[in-house]
C-alpha cells in the first residue's frame, strides 16, 4: 500500500485533481502526527478486514466515495494497447472491482484501470 499526501502544497501539473491538507482544512498539521493517525486507522481497518468485516468497510467507504453515481472515463490497458470506456461510477463490489454502468446500460466490473473523474481535464 502506498499513499501520497500533500500536507502543505501540491504539484502544479495536477492542480485540477489535487489539493493540500493545509488548503483543504486551513490547518498546518505536523507530518509525524498525521502519519501516526493514518497508521492507527489502517491498523483498525486491517484488523476488521482480517475478521471478515468487508461489507461493513465497503458500506462506510460508499458513504465517502468521491464521484459516486457520476460520469467517469476509464482507460484499460491490455496486450493490444488500451481501450477507453465512459459511464456512471456505481461503486465497488465486495472483491474491490469498480462498477461502471456503461452507456449501453450494461454494468462492467473493472479490476485494473486508470479512472478519470474530471473529464474536462483529459
Condensed summary:
The chain is of the alpha+beta class and 122 residues long. It is built from 3 helices and 5 strands, in the order αααβββββ.
How would you portray this structure in words?
This protein has three helices and five strands. Helices cover 30% and strands 26% of the residues. The protein is globular. The protein starts with 20 loop residues before the first helix and ends in a 6-residue tail after the last strand. It has a five-stranded antiparallel β-sheet, with no helix packed on it. It folds into two domains: 1-52, no CATH class; 71-121, SH3 type barrels, CATH 2.30.30.100. With 122 residues, it is an alpha+beta fold. The model has no long low-confidence stretch (mean pLDDT 84). Strand 2 (81-92) and strand 3 (98-102) form a beta hairpin. The longest helix is centred in the first third of the chain and has 20 residues, at 31-50.
Total of helices: 3
The helix/strand series, from N terminus to C terminus, equals HHHEEEEE
Q: Order the strands across the largest sheet as they lie in space.
A: 4-3-2-1-5
Distance between the termini: 26 Å
What structural class do the secondary elements suggest?
A: alpha+beta
Strand content: 25-35%
Which stretches are low in confidence, meaning pLDDT under 50 for 5 or more residues running? none
Query: What sort of overall outline do the alpha carbons produce when their principal axes are compared?
Result: globular
Nearest-integer average pLDDT: 84
Overall strand count: 5
Summarize the main sheet.
5 strands, antiparallel
Domains (count): 2
Helix content: 25-40%
**What is the rounded Rg?**
17 Å
